[in-house]
Amino acid sequence: MPSSRRSCLRFRHTQTKDFVTCSRLIPLLGGVARSAGVVVIKQDLTGDGELVRKAALRYLGRREYSAFELRQRLERRGASLHDIKAAIAYAQSNRYLDDGRAAEAHIRQRLNYAPRGRALIAYELKERGISQQIGDTLLEIHYPTELERELLLALLAKETKLEQDRMNKKELWKLRQKVARRLLAKGFPQDLVMEVLEEWNV
């Protein structure tokens, strides 16, 4: 590798966090270069509103972000508050950025791939900077309390595949406690967990 390029690159494996900026290479590499586990991190955005807007659109082209998350991403790359506000306003006006859409995608992903209780998902949405009003409205639409019960029953069936008839009372009690802890950790309400466990006689 030529010394001029070596001077602005730092190799890393994908599991590490050793980042470096190379402004000369970024325009040619489209923001990130990937080859044999090597990554070149995107250039600093300080003082360039056009680059900030383009960076925002690149992020949004990959997945749904909330305005809060996008702001954090751009801030970490040195963008000014003025340029960030302009980029976010542009993205929102063109419907590239929408907190409601980001919340809906988050809820659907949880329901389809990693079921969690309504309370925990509501907390996750809040952590992503999505307003409680948007979160509560979309949870009511896409994750009503009846569905929470159905998901809890499905998870319980998965957690209790062990042959219960081969267990003595002490082993069954231990299984009940173990399953309860797992379901509570997934954010399901305690009263619902206990109710379903009673119905299943676990």
Question: What does this protein look like?
Answer:
With 202 residues, the chain is mainly alpha-helical. 24% of the residues are buried. It has four domains: 1-43, no CATH class; 49-93; 101-143, Arc Repressor Mutant, subunit A; 146-200. It is built from eleven helices and two strands. A hairpin with a 2-residue loop joins strand 1 (34-35) and strand 2. Strands 1-2 form a two-stranded antiparallel ribbon. It has helices at 3-6, 26-29, 49-62, 67-76, 81-93, 99-113, 118-127, 132-142, 145-159, 169-185, 190-200; strands spanning 34-35, 38-39. The longest helix is centred in the last third of the chain and has 17 residues, at 169-185. It is elongated and about 70 Å long.
What is the ordering of alpha helices and beta strands?
Answer: HHEEHHHHHHHHH
Uncertain parts? 1-40
Counted by DSSP, the helix tally is: 11
Tally the structural domains.
Answer: 4
β-strand amount: under 5%
From the N-terminal CA to the C-terminal CA, the straight-line distance is 64 Å
Q: How many strand elements?
A: 2
- Going across the major beta sheet, what is the strand order? 1-2
What is the typical, i.e. mean, pLDDT?
78
Helix content range: 55-70%
The outline comes out as elongated
Q: Outline of this structure?
A:
This protein is mostly helical. 61% of the residues lie in helices and 2% in strands. The protein has a two-stranded antiparallel ribbon with strand order 1-2.
Helices, strands, pairings?
Blueprint: H1 3-6, H2 26-29, E1 34-35, E2 38-39, H3 49-62, H4 67-76, H5 81-93, H6 99-113, H7 118-127, H8 132-142, H9 145-159, H10 169-185, H11 190-200
Antiparallel strand pairs: 1-2
Helix pairs in contact: 3-5, 4-5, 6-8, 7-8, 9-11, 10-11
